[in-house]
Protein backbone atom coordinates (compact mmCIF):
# COMPACT_ATOMS: atom_id res chain seq x y z
CA UNK A 1 0.00 0.00 0.00
CA UNK A 2 2.75 2.37 0.87
CA UNK A 3 4.55 1.52 -2.38
CA UNK A 4 1.44 2.43 -4.40
CA UNK A 5 1.19 5.76 -2.60
CA UNK A 6 4.83 6.48 -3.38
CA UNK A 7 4.28 5.58 -7.06
CA UNK A 8 1.27 7.86 -7.33
CA UNK A 9 3.19 10.67 -5.69
CA UNK A 10 6.01 10.32 -8.23
CA UNK A 11 3.54 10.26 -11.12
CA UNK A 12 1.75 13.34 -9.88
CA UNK A 13 5.07 15.19 -9.61
CA UNK A 14 6.29 14.12 -13.05
CA UNK A 15 3.11 14.51 -15.11
CA UNK A 16 3.09 18.36 -14.99
CA UNK A 17 6.61 18.37 -16.38
CA UNK A 18 5.52 16.28 -19.33
CA UNK A 19 2.45 18.46 -19.79
CA UNK A 20 4.67 21.53 -20.03
CA UNK A 21 7.15 19.96 -22.46
CA UNK A 22 7.48 21.88 -25.74
CA UNK A 23 8.34 20.68 -29.19
CA UNK A 24 9.46 22.91 -32.04
CA UNK A 25 9.38 22.33 -35.76
CA UNK A 26 10.25 24.05 -39.00
CA UNK A 27 10.16 23.22 -42.70
CA UNK A 28 13.54 23.29 -44.40
CA UNK A 29 14.35 24.39 -47.95
CA UNK A 30 13.48 20.95 -49.28
CA UNK A 31 10.06 20.96 -47.66
CA UNK A 32 11.05 18.47 -44.97
CA UNK A 33 9.59 19.05 -41.51
CA UNK A 34 12.26 19.03 -38.81
CA UNK A 35 11.37 18.62 -35.12
CA UNK A 36 13.62 19.70 -32.28
CA UNK A 37 13.37 20.64 -28.60
CA UNK A 38 16.41 22.85 -28.07
CA UNK A 39 18.50 25.16 -30.21
CA UNK A 40 17.36 25.28 -33.85
CA UNK A 41 19.44 23.18 -36.24
CA UNK A 42 21.14 24.86 -39.22
CA UNK A 43 18.28 23.80 -41.50
CA UNK A 44 15.88 25.95 -39.46
CA UNK A 45 17.99 29.09 -39.44
CA UNK A 46 15.98 31.97 -40.92
CA UNK A 47 12.79 29.91 -41.18
CA UNK A 48 9.41 30.14 -39.45
CA UNK A 49 9.18 28.04 -36.31
CA UNK A 50 6.09 26.44 -34.84
CA UNK A 51 5.84 25.62 -31.14
CA UNK A 52 3.73 22.65 -30.03
CA UNK A 53 2.86 20.86 -26.85
CA UNK A 54 3.92 17.26 -26.28
CA UNK A 55 0.47 16.26 -27.57
CA UNK A 56 1.08 17.95 -30.92
CA UNK A 57 -1.15 20.94 -30.23
CA UNK A 58 0.20 24.16 -31.76
CA UNK A 59 0.77 26.71 -28.99
CA UNK A 60 2.68 29.40 -30.87
CA UNK A 61 3.60 30.27 -34.41
CA UNK A 62 6.79 32.26 -34.61
CA UNK A 63 8.16 34.49 -37.32
CA UNK A 64 11.20 33.55 -39.33
CA UNK A 65 14.38 33.81 -37.33
CA UNK A 66 16.71 36.46 -38.63
CA UNK A 67 19.66 35.27 -40.70
CA UNK A 68 23.21 36.44 -39.87
CA UNK A 69 23.05 38.75 -42.89
CA UNK A 70 19.77 40.26 -41.70
CA UNK A 71 21.17 40.71 -38.18
CA UNK A 72 24.28 42.44 -39.58
CA UNK A 73 22.18 44.70 -41.81
CA UNK A 74 19.98 45.64 -38.85
CA UNK A 75 23.02 46.41 -36.70
CA UNK A 76 24.51 48.58 -39.47
CA UNK A 77 21.24 50.43 -39.89
CA UNK A 78 21.08 51.05 -36.15
CA UNK A 79 24.68 52.32 -36.19
CA UNK A 80 23.80 54.72 -39.01
CA UNK A 81 20.75 55.92 -37.12
CA UNK A 82 22.78 56.53 -33.98
CA UNK A 83 25.47 58.40 -35.93
CA UNK A 84 22.84 60.58 -37.61
CA UNK A 85 21.32 61.33 -34.20
CA UNK A 86 24.75 62.16 -32.80
CA UNK A 87 25.41 64.56 -35.66
CA UNK A 88 22.00 66.14 -35.21
CA UNK A 89 22.62 66.72 -31.51
CA UNK A 90 26.10 68.07 -32.23
CA UNK A 91 24.63 70.51 -34.75
CA UNK A 92 22.08 71.66 -32.21
CA UNK A 93 24.85 72.22 -29.68
CA UNK A 94 26.91 74.23 -32.16
CA UNK A 95 23.90 76.26 -33.24
CA UNK A 96 23.13 77.10 -29.61
CA UNK A 97 26.76 78.09 -29.02
CA UNK A 98 26.75 80.36 -32.08
CA UNK A 99 23.59 82.17 -31.05
CA UNK A 100 24.72 82.57 -27.45
CA UNK A 101 28.29 83.63 -28.30
CA UNK A 102 27.87 86.18 -31.08
CA UNK A 103 25.52 89.11 -31.59
CA UNK A 104 26.45 89.54 -35.24
CA UNK A 105 28.68 88.26 -38.06
CA UNK A 106 31.15 91.08 -37.40
CA UNK A 107 32.09 89.46 -34.09
CA UNK A 108 32.81 86.21 -35.88
CA UNK A 109 35.13 88.07 -38.26
CA UNK A 110 36.96 89.74 -35.39
CA UNK A 111 37.53 86.49 -33.54
CA UNK A 112 38.70 84.84 -36.76
CA UNK A 113 41.16 87.68 -37.38
CA UNK A 114 42.57 87.38 -33.85
CA UNK A 115 43.21 83.66 -34.26
CA UNK A 116 44.68 84.15 -37.72
CA UNK A 117 47.00 86.85 -36.43
CA UNK A 118 48.36 84.55 -33.72
CA UNK A 119 48.76 81.66 -36.16
CA UNK A 120 50.47 83.83 -38.77
CA UNK A 121 52.89 85.20 -36.15
CA UNK A 122 53.77 81.63 -35.21
CA UNK A 123 54.23 80.84 -38.91
CA UNK A 124 56.60 83.79 -39.31
CA UNK A 125 58.69 82.48 -36.40
CA UNK A 126 58.80 79.02 -37.96
CA UNK A 127 59.90 80.49 -41.31
CA UNK A 128 62.71 82.37 -39.55
CA UNK A 129 63.76 79.15 -37.82
CA UNK A 130 63.75 77.35 -41.16
CA UNK A 131 65.92 80.07 -42.69
CA UNK A 132 68.44 79.69 -39.87
CA UNK A 133 68.36 75.90 -40.17
CA UNK A 134 68.95 76.15 -43.91
CA UNK A 135 71.88 78.54 -43.41
CA UNK A 136 73.45 76.21 -40.85
CA UNK A 137 72.93 73.25 -43.15
CA UNK A 138 74.48 75.10 -46.09
CA UNK A 139 77.54 75.94 -43.98
CA UNK A 140 78.02 72.35 -42.91
CA UNK A 141 77.60 71.10 -46.46
CA UNK A 142 80.25 73.55 -47.61
CA UNK A 143 82.62 72.19 -44.96
CA UNK A 144 81.84 68.65 -46.09
CA UNK A 145 82.61 69.62 -49.70
CA UNK A 146 85.95 71.08 -48.59
CA UNK A 147 86.92 67.79 -46.94
CA UNK A 148 85.79 65.88 -50.01
CA UNK A 149 87.79 68.08 -52.41
CA UNK A 150 90.92 67.63 -50.33
CA UNK A 151 90.22 63.90 -50.23
CA UNK A 152 90.13 63.93 -46.48
CA UNK A 153 87.83 61.85 -44.36
CA UNK A 154 84.84 63.76 -42.99
CA UNK A 155 85.25 64.12 -39.21
CA UNK A 156 82.64 62.32 -37.15
CA UNK A 157 81.65 65.57 -35.40
CA UNK A 158 80.98 67.34 -38.70
CA UNK A 159 79.08 64.34 -39.99
CA UNK A 160 76.90 64.25 -36.86
CA UNK A 161 76.24 68.01 -37.04
CA UNK A 162 75.31 67.68 -40.70
CA UNK A 163 72.79 64.92 -39.98
CA UNK A 164 71.36 66.93 -37.10
CA UNK A 165 71.03 70.05 -39.28
CA UNK A 166 69.24 68.09 -41.99
CA UNK A 167 66.84 66.65 -39.41
CA UNK A 168 66.25 70.10 -37.96
CA UNK A 169 65.37 71.46 -41.38
CA UNK A 170 62.89 68.64 -41.99
CA UNK A 171 61.26 69.26 -38.62
CA UNK A 172 60.90 72.97 -39.32
CA UNK A 173 59.36 72.26 -42.72
CA UNK A 174 56.89 69.81 -41.12
CA UNK A 175 55.90 72.38 -38.49
CA UNK A 176 55.40 75.02 -41.18
CA UNK A 177 53.14 72.66 -43.14
CA UNK A 178 51.09 71.95 -39.99
CA UNK A 179 50.78 75.65 -39.21
CA UNK A 180 49.63 76.45 -42.74
CA UNK A 181 47.03 73.70 -42.45
CA UNK A 182 45.89 75.16 -39.14
CA UNK A 183 45.47 78.59 -40.75
CA UNK A 184 43.31 77.11 -43.51
CA UNK A 185 41.20 75.29 -40.93
CA UNK A 186 40.67 78.54 -39.00
CA UNK A 187 39.47 80.27 -42.17
CA UNK A 188 37.20 77.35 -43.04
CA UNK A 189 35.76 76.96 -39.53
CA UNK A 190 34.89 80.59 -39.07
CA UNK A 191 33.56 80.76 -42.62
CA UNK A 192 31.19 77.90 -41.85
CA UNK A 193 30.25 79.43 -38.49
CA UNK A 194 29.46 82.76 -40.12
CA UNK A 195 27.36 81.13 -42.84
CA UNK A 196 25.41 79.08 -40.28
CA UNK A 197 24.95 82.10 -38.01
CA UNK A 198 23.39 84.07 -40.86
CA UNK A 199 21.13 81.10 -41.68
CA UNK A 200 19.94 80.92 -38.07
CA UNK A 201 19.37 84.66 -38.01
CA UNK A 202 17.61 84.69 -41.34
CA UNK A 203 20.47 86.53 -43.00
CA UNK A 204 20.35 89.43 -40.58
CA UNK A 205 22.58 90.46 -37.67
CA UNK A 206 21.43 92.00 -34.44
Features:
206 residues; alpha+beta; 3 domains; elongated
Q: What distance lies between the first and last C-alpha atoms, to the nearest angstrom?
A: 101 Å
Order of helices and strands: HEEEEHHH
Strand content: 5-15%
> How can the largest sheet be summarized?
4 strands, antiparallel
Give the % helix.
55-70%
Instruction: Estimate the mean pLDDT confidence.
Output: 85
Cross-sheet strand order for the largest sheet: 2-1-3-4
Protein described:
This protein folds into three domains: 21-65, no CATH class; 67-101; 105-200. The N and C termini lie far apart (101 Å). Residues 14-19 have low confidence and may be disordered. It has a four-stranded antiparallel beta sheet, with no helix packed on it. It is built from four helices and four strands, in the order H-E-E-E-E-H-H-H. The longest helix has 45 residues, at 105-149. The chain is an alpha+beta fold.
Quick synopsis:
A four-stranded antiparallel β-sheet has the order 2-1-3-4, with no helix packed on it.
List the SSEs and their pairings.
Layout: H1 2-20, E1 22-27, E2 33-36, E3 50-53, E4 58-61, H2 68-101, H3 105-149, H4 156-200
Antiparallel strand pairs: 1-2, 1-3, 3-4
Helix pairs in contact: 3-4
Amino acid sequence: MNNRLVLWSVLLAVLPLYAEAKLLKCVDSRGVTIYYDGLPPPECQGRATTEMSNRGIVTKRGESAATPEQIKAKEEEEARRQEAERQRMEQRRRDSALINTYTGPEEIDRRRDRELQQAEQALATLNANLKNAQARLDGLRKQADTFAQSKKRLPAAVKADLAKAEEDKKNQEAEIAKKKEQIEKIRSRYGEDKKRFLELKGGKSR
